[in-house]
Amino acid sequence: MARAVTPQRKAINTTLAWAVGLLIFFPILWTILTSFKTEAQAINDPPLFLFFDWTLENYSVVQERSDYMRFLWNSVIIAVGSTILGVLIAVPAAWSMAFVPSRRTKDILLWMLSTKMLPAVGVLYPIYLLFIKLGLLDSRVGLVVVLMLINLPIIVWMLYTYFKEIPGEILEAARMDGAGLREEILYVLTPMAVPGIASTMLLNVILAWNEAFWTLNLTAAKAAPLTAFIASYSSPEGLFYAKLSAASTMAIAPILILGWFSQKQLVRGLTFGAVK
Amino acid sequence: MYSRNALRAATALTLIAVGAAQAEEITIATVNNGDMIRMQGLTDDFTAKTGHEVEWVTLEENVLRQRVTQDIATKGGQFDIMTIGMYETPIWARQGWLVPLDDLPADYDIDDILPAMRDGLSVDGTLYAAPFYGESSMIMYRTDLFEEAGIEMPDAPTWDFVADAARKITDRDNEIYGICLRGKAGWGENMAFLTTMANSFGARWFDEDWTPQFDQPEWKEAITFYLDLMEDAGPPGASTNGFNENLSLFQQGKCGMWIDATVAASFVTNPDDSSVADSVGFALAPDTGLGKRANWLWAWALAIPAGTQKEEAAKDFINWATSKDYLALVAEKEGWANVPPGTRTSLYENPNYADIPFAQMTLESIRAANPNEPTVEPVPYVGIQFVAIPEFAGIGTQAGQEFSAALAGQQTAEEALEKAQALTADEMEAAGY
Amino acid sequence: MATQHSRSAARLMMAPAVVLLMGWMLVPLTMTLWFSFRRYLPLRGGDLGWTGFDNYVRFVSSSSFWPSIQATLIIVGGVLAITVCFGVLLALLLDQPMWGQGIVRILVIAPFFVMPTVSALVWKNMFMDPVNGLFAHLFKFFGATPISWLSEASLASIIMIVSWQWLPFATLILLTAIQSLDSEQLEAAEMDGAPAIKRFWFIILPHMSRAITVVILIQTIFLLSIFAEIFVTTQGSFGTRTLTYLIFQRVLESQNVGLGSAGGVYAIILANIVALFLMRIVGKNLDA
Questions:
Q1: How confident is the model at residue B13 (pLDDT cuts 50, 70, 90)?
Q2: Beta strand pairing status for B255-261 and B126-127?
Q3: Residue A173: inside a domain, yes or no?
Q4: Is A39–B29 a contact, with Cβ atoms under 8 angstroms apart?
Q5: Does C152 contact chain B (CB < 8 Å)?
Q6: Residue B251: its chain A contacts at CB < 8 A?
Q7: C-contacting residues of A 209-228, CB under 8 Å?
Q8: Residue B244 lies in a domain
Q9: Contacts of A131 in chain B (CB under 8 A)
Q10: Helix, strand or coil, per DSSP, at residue B254
Q11: Is residue B364 a part of any domain in this protein?
Q12: Which CATH number do you get for residue B92?
């Protein structure tokens, strides 16, 4: 909402907001800066901000030690795959909850959310044994399925709240015009729902990308994503801040860039029905 | 990347020429320590020699332990070779989870492996894991600081001498702390050190009926000594310092003394990373005159989980990575100081290696360690800085958290010992002792 | 409005999601329940038979049980309090007219994209390290003695790390809520001479209550099971052993699957108690 304010007020707002924004962003900025230092400069006292010998050495060391592209590719496949699969399953469910609600709808929705509260460590053994039986250990398929199941409740809920905002009259009008269920979903609902679906997918790519328990415990070499990549750079022997920073930057950069470019989409869908 | 591809191509050609048909791809889980990363970098040499490819899963120590234990206990079969330690090897071997390494070729020269290492990795005389590098613990100290203070470090000091020297050297204004010791909780972190320290004070984990001994005066004496010493001469925040944190402190010249793994010697004397490389001296871990020194024995070793489909290729790898040739290969590429230490007698007989300042003290420390008789009083268990029973990892870490909290000043030595006693008794009862 | 036909179609469309989640819940749950009544010690030969309620009794009677519940609640409560309070303030600030609003928003949401392992590693090593951390340098610069954050202020440090990760999420949802507020109402109040505090308290805050509920609900679900942040930083020392972490220690460090499974069942019960509370609140605030 645009309100008229005095320039002084605007200047104060700007200063304050930038200060807070930079403060929140600082740990990431510091990590990125450190990744371009040598190990000795990384722990220099006093800390060096911009005036040091910028080097790409850490990145080449990290790349030499681990095949970054492979980890990255696994992360992409797992995050995107589980999101697409999740949305395919969640759209019909959310649709029927939003447009053909019954007395139980809310219970089912809340029950779905409650499945997210199972502590992962408590069911690690059962799932691991199950994965051995099914031959799914260290496979992308296995991870896609698990991450889809973990995030499905969130997907269903986001889509549901989004669909709820689509006025029912439009659907009735379509029905009057003789549209069947299929046409209704395909031609009326989908176009209106695309922004909501898009932001749901974005959020889930982020959640799946950052999931670090199952992706680490159910993989070995072939399906290991960036979370496993990071696990080989935490606390090795000797000085490691710069290499850790380089590896961290490499692990978060893709999702950070995606998130920034699509932040408007993301913000629009992130309401979870919180806005009437 | 380029050179690796070129090498692979070359390898492929050799293979066609030689006609070796079963080139396989093995998956190896390992820890992200310097020596292992060096091994990873030399994989091409293995591939060139045998034709087998290697997939590396390099993980931080805690994650690695969790992953390999989980996998072997459920027979998940994710790895063809696991990097494990002296603690896991006998336990897993007794479960029949490891392939016995009893058919290594003659040129592997198994008798060349240091007896202490071979014993620790064998069950009933059969080797189940081949040592990649071995270590004991010793004192590393700053010769320049000792000189300045006019103290001379004997080769085999006592705890009283060490404590005294540490207090004299400490200069908090200049960020020099007399002694750096492990404080970070974990059975392989602070408890490894504290257990050896307790051993030298005459304490033990269990008596011969498996009754926990934390309520005994020896433990109290050892823990109180440790807490007082760290209070007076330790670095700030010592309760979160493990091996790596202390290494980095020492390299930055902030520790007067550091009692830790012998492998650290090559890091602190490496001028690339260490600002104090030319002024480091070595001495045996301290004692109290009771006949046991505070030094441990550990090896990181390569083992093959039973049930792997690629046993032959895995054995080829172990044969390559723990051989004499591998030591020579590392020496040629990275210099003798970077050779994985502590596994072979021949290395210490090699005149090139004898020039390395820490070689002799490492060997003496390893020789001074006896896992079969770790304590002053008799015990029913094997292992110096650990107790080789499956429950120990859990107990050790929880007890370690109590001592770590005591070091952080959140509880007294008595409280920590009381809690450690209770939780150990509890876990042992649950395990059915 | 809905016909019989569309009702059964609706059920059919819901089926895949419901069946899958039912399976995802029931299969591991059944196995966990089964293990929890067994003496299952993988390193001692595996499943050693039936023990009745032994594991349950042992898990609760252990001296670390109640402290772990306490740590869990403190962390969840602390993070919720910080993210909601600062989220509201930040949302109010970002709603004001300013230059470069888009860039500021990008800066503020960035932590949400950082994986928990990375954020824990960065905070632990580069900020909270008592010797080389940035905080230590800062303290020394002002002549103070550096704090060993992860041991002296362990819970607060973890709450801070986790709050940093979740603040963007809260801020975004709350910001969207503020922006949807009818500005005429506010302007009217302003003309009536209502002071800013009153406007906030009687108009803005009630309008945001629904969004706050959503933030609390979603964050609680994720926070009850935080693991990576603790595993990387303190490994459960210094009073940061949450229920989740205690189960991890029982299952993976002590390799006592039976005991850990019993802990898992308790965690599910705790989660459901919390959920029940939440549903009560949400039910009122969120009648969809």
A1: very low
A2: unpaired
A3: yes
A4: no
A5: yes
A6: 238-239
A7: 209-210, 212-213, 226-227
A8: yes
A9: 76
A10: coil
A11: no
A12: 3.40.190.10
Average pLDDT along chain C, 288 residues, taken 10 residues at a time: 67 85 87 90 83 89 90 95 95 88 89 92 89 86 85 92 94 87 77 81 84 87 88 88 91 88 90 78 59
**Phi and psi for A6 in degrees, rounded to 5?**
-70, 150
**What is the distance in angstroms between the Cα of C24 and the nearest Cα belonging to chain B?**
20
CATH of the domain at A91: 1.10.3720.10
A206-221 pLDDT, tens digit each: 999 999 889 989 998 8
Domain count, chain B: 2
| Interface contact C130, partner B, CB < 8 A | yes
ipTM, two decimals = 0.87
The residues that bridge with B81 in the sheet, in sequence order, are B28
Residue B392 and residue C135 in contact, taking contact as beta carbons nearer than 8 Å: no
Query: Which residues from C are below 8 Å from B95, CB to CB?
Result: 43, 45
Nearest-CA residue of chain C relative to A153?
C21
Give which of A194, A196, A216, A198 is closest to A78, Cα–Cα.
A216
Could you list the residue range(s) of the whole structural domain that residue B231 is in? 137-296+369-431
Kindly determine whether residue A271 and residue C117, on different chains, have CB atoms separated by under 8 Å: no
A236:B37 CB<8 A: yes
Compare CB distances from C151 to B239, B254, B393 and report the shortest one's residue.
Answer: B239
Q: Would you state the structure tokens that stand for residue A264, as one six-digit string?
A: 């408007």
Are both B277 and B321 inside the same structural domain? no
* Contact by Cβ (8 Å): B212, B421: yes
Nearest CB to B273 within list A129, A132, A238? A238
Q: Which residue of A has its CA nearest to C6?
A: A100
Domain extent, residue A214, equals 75-228+252-269
Please provide the CATH number assigned to the domain covering C74-115+147-255.
Answer: 1.10.3720.10
Q: Tell whether the model's pLDDT for residue B20 goes beyond 50.
A: no
Residue B360 lies in a domain: no
Whole-angstrom distance, CA of residue B234 vs CA of residue A103: 66
What residues of B are in contact with residue A45 (Cβ under 8 Å)? none
N-term to C-term CA, chain A: 16
pLDDT digit string, tens, across residues C208-257:
888 888 888 889 888 988 888 999 888 888 889 999 999 998 888 888 88
The whole-angstrom distance between residue B221's C-alpha and the CA centroid of its chain comes to: 26
